[in-house]
Amino acid sequence: MEPLQKEEIEKAIQNLDGWEYNENAIHTKIEFKNFKEAFSAMTRIAFEAEAQAHHPEWTNVYNQLEISLSTHDAGGVTQKDIEMATTIETLLFN
Amino acid sequence: MEPLQKEEIEKAIQNLDGWEYNENAIHTKIEFKNFKEAFSAMTRIAFEAEAQAHHPEWTNVYNQLEISLSTHDAGGVTQKDIEMATTIETLLFN
Q1: Which of A43, A46, A52 is nearest to A71 (CA)?
Q2: Which CA distances in Å does B1 have to B73, B74, B83?
Q3: How far, CA to CA in Å, does A4 sit from each of A1, A51, B35, B62?
Q4: Neighboring chain B residues of A59 at a CB cutoff of 8 Å
Q5: What domains appear along chain B, each with residue ranges and CATH number?
Q6: ipTM confidence score
Q7: Measured between alpha carbons, how far is A48 from A69 in angstroms, rounded to an integer?
Q8: Do B57 and A60 touch (CB under 8 A)?
Q9: Is B35 in contact with A55 (Cβ distance < 8 A)?
Q10: For this chain's UniProt record, which GO biological process terms are given (chains A, B) (predicted)?
């Protein structure tokens, strides 16, 4: 899978809420009510990540969750990352 | 709760496997077989963290898990962190 061009990535994340592109990955930060809400969201994302065979780099502390997506094999952001970001948005905010 | 002294922390983590003390927190890295194993471990830790009302800062990517423990209110490592590290070790390796 080929990495997307910068313009393609920036156009794609305009359709999402709260994602930024830098350092060859797309990133978001989400704040939840508390740890249980944050970890519940992580669990839902984990199942989707496993199903898509595409896993985030993510950091959690209490109610904060930071997620970075990139496709290591491709050396950048691919359509798989855009799909995973879209899945996360759908899971959490729809 | 008072932060522990450097010597107390270093003595306490000698009884644990793979923990280091630096930057005012204790840290470990654990490698699992795959994402499912890593996230299963995180889930077990999450329930304990919630029960102890003491939450890690942790980063996961695929089969890798990095955990940092400190007590923000105390500005350092306290007995709560040693207890959580011990809990994690017991959960995962015993």
Answers
A1: A52
A2: 8, 6, 13
A3: 9, 22, 25, 22
A4: 57-59
A5: 6-93 (3.30.1360.20)
A6: 0.95
A7: 14
A8: yes
A9: yes
A10: tetrahydrobiopterin biosynthetic process
